Amino acid sequence: MPEKVTAASVASMVDHTLLKPESTPADVAALIDEAVSLGVFSICVSPSLLPVKIPEGSELKVATVVGFPSGAHHPEVKAAETARAVTDGAHEIDMVINLGAVKSGDWELVERDIRAVRDAAPAPVVLKVIIESAALTDEEIVAACEASERAGADFVKTSTGFHSTGGASVHAVRLMAHTVGQRLGVKASGGIRTGDAALAMISAGATRLGLSGTAAVLDGVENPDTAVESGDGSGY
Length: 236
Prior knowledge:
It is a single chain. Helix content is 40%, strand content 16%. The protein has 236 residues and is of the alpha/beta class. It has one domain (7-226): Aldolase class I (TIM Barrel, Alpha-Beta Barrel), CATH 3.20.20. It has an eight-stranded parallel β-barrel with strand order 1-2-3-4-5-6-7-8, surrounded by six helices. Strand 5, helix 6 and strand 6 form a beta-alpha-beta unit. Helix 5 crosses helix 6 and helix 6 packs across helix 7. The chain is globular, with a radius of gyration of 16 Å.
């Protein structure tokens, strides 16, 4: 963790997230306004809500999800979804790994799936691979991170926030960070609702955070003695 962690420095690591299925364009517009006022790195919204209008002069990035939330899509479908998202203005793609392929040890399919998305979104688009860490063993977490790196990912990411097994854990983030070193980023997401939780993830090696209750989390970083748990019920 950096020597001096402030609410502003944490905000600069945040993907301010709205992935509730019932979200509307008006909700996204409100999300963007809040994101700009909080000074976060990006917003993350569903692909059907792209393109979005970012205020002129803002450096706010736009992320979206692919193969979400199950990951159980054909690689060609994920690639097509990715290509459309990039056309619609996405700077970053958060794709869900094929969990069935991971569980069956079909690492060729896992890599082919990720590589299909990478090919559809070449650099400078940033590719994050959601491995759904709470559903995996430690060995599977390591192997999924290694496959993501081989397939050209820029980040590995803990969770969708929608899986029944849960979201991010300090243990998973630490293991992921150890596996990828400084070669890839590590995004912690899913169930991070307090300033203390966010700081624990950063200390474990997270370089990006996926948050829905961002304002409350940042307030908890700034004012730890008055912090309350945040969250909008989306699982993020």
